[in-house]
Amino acid sequence: MIYLKNRSKFHFVFFKSRILSASGIGILFGLIAQMSIDPEYQTPIIQMINKLLLFIPIGMIFKILIEEIVNKDQYYFFYNQGITKVELWITSFIFSFSIYIIFNLIFTIWTRSLRLIA
Question: Which segments cross the bilayer (predicted)?
């Protein structure tokens, strides 16, 4: 049990070190996608934020690919703990996708509650 607890700490440390830049990359892709759909159509802020959040897991994938090309030797710390690259990548993608689902649920509940109030 302690082994899994320590392992999950390392997974979270890896994810935490990449989430800010991955979110930035994802939001950038979301903005590009939002502008390419119809630049003259003004979407409400709620729908735009929801679409931007969709690209955060995609940003995590691109961030991991960029890190793999630029810094290949950064994984030695995790290798010494018995954690492979693929394991780190999968858990990071799962964490970022779960963040997307949580934020998506929050925005859905928020928009539905605003409709009920108004």
Answer: 12-33, 45-66, 86-110
Q: Rounded to an integer, what distance in angstroms lies between the CA atom of residue 20 and that of residue 118?
A: 35
Could you report the per-residue pLDDT of 89-103, keeping only the tens digit for each? 888 888 888 888 888
SS3 118: coil
Please check whether residue 26 is in contact with residue 55, taking contact to mean a CB–CB distance below 8 angstroms. yes
DSSP 56: H
* 107 burial level (CB within 10 Å; 0-12, 13-18, 19+): middle
CA distance 91 to 8: 9
DSSP state, residue 41: -
Distance CA 92, CA 68 (A): 14
Note the pLDDT of residue 8: 81
